What we know:
By secondary structure, this protein is mainly α. Helix content is 79%, strand content 0%. It has helices at 2-10, 15-22, 26-50, 56-65, 69-98, 107-126, 129-158, 174-188, 204-233, 236-241, 246-291, 306-324, 327-357, 361-385, 387-417, 419-424. Mean pLDDT is 84; it is low at 421-434.
Amino acid sequence: xxxxxxxxxxxxxxxxxxxxxxxxxxxxxxxxxxxxxxxxxxxxxxxxxxxxxxxxxxxxxxxxxxxxxxxxxxxxxxxxxxxxxxxxxxxxxxxxxxxxxxxxxxxxxxxxxxxxxxxxxxxxxxxxxxxxxxxxxxxxxxxxxxxxxxxxxxxxxxxxxxxxxxxxxxxxxxxxxxxxxxxxxxxxxxxxxxxxxxxxxxxxxxxxxxxxxxxxxxxxxxxxxxxxxxxxxxxxxxxxxxxxxxxxxxxxxxxxxxxxxxxxxxxxxxxxxxxxxxxxxxxxxxxxxxxxxxxxxxxxxxxxxxxxxxxxxxxxxxxxxxxxxxxxxxxxxxxxxxxxxxxxxxxxxxxxxxxxxxxxxxxxxxxxxxxxxxxxxxxxxxxxxxxxxxxxxxxxxxxxxxxxxxxxxxxxxxxxxxxxxxxxxxxxxxxxxx
Length: 434
């Protein structure tokens, strides 16, 4: 599931965005992203090894900070970054679907197809967990194999001396290269969904960590192959021009029209499976947060339990984002939310749980520093090119913290004034809420 989310977003949605910032060195951005992600994974692995559960990020944050505003707000930001990922990959699906007809620049049509992809993902998820699991396994195998075939064949046909790699490197753009790592980290963030599988995995104390590292390793190999294939086939200006469908554009010079259509089919397979996996992960996490009483909930007249309600809320939010924002802004918003949440995880483990889980302070500090440097560089770059998205991110994060503070404060007041009512109002994830 984690690999499915990562490859669905990382390759098709973000390669062009990364190349636009990093220039001819953009393959190095994926390498740096893998290194930062590996450092970040240390906290999640240590926590999951100690307390494997289906709570995932929510469990980690609650262990680190207690059931308060920081834990609930950070968990909410993680859930929102998953939902943002849904809209990101859905718009990528729409762009690739419309590219053969020359309609990829028709804004309303891209939004409509992206919305249709999210609705389809909802229907698959509503059919049950077995449908999601089986679909994800099959699609992951198809897209990993297809992407690998494309990348190796493109490198073989074009070599590594042409395209973007023949262009001069501008050392003055080192800050932009560093900022691009934020997108690369976002391409790897799907590993966090694996932490939600601790309750179902065989021998989770060992296998959660192993699965995370294998998933990251598979993705970096695929990402590097694709980056080399795209960079050897297209110039930077061509990648930027086709940034929302760069793999399809790279296939045409090397293989002609048949290669182009092959890549489009693989892209559609990868992105729709990525949307389905993201919808599952986000709705499940929101349901967990609600069960933990860290989020308010209302069924608005809908039947079923919390999980089915959260599926609806997830696709509504993702659909709204897919309609209102373009790929670049969606990706940027996701990067801001994820990096802030990730830093809160590392700080919580470092300050409160390091000895209990047997984590090394040096690695936790390195992960914090890496996230902080990338976030600072990304913020500066976006303030120059798109200050509005920085404002949106700050406002969004502030709303999350304020909203959680208001909700939890009200909950504490109700509990302290009437403890009996708290007991009588208890519920499980399988029950409806009044």
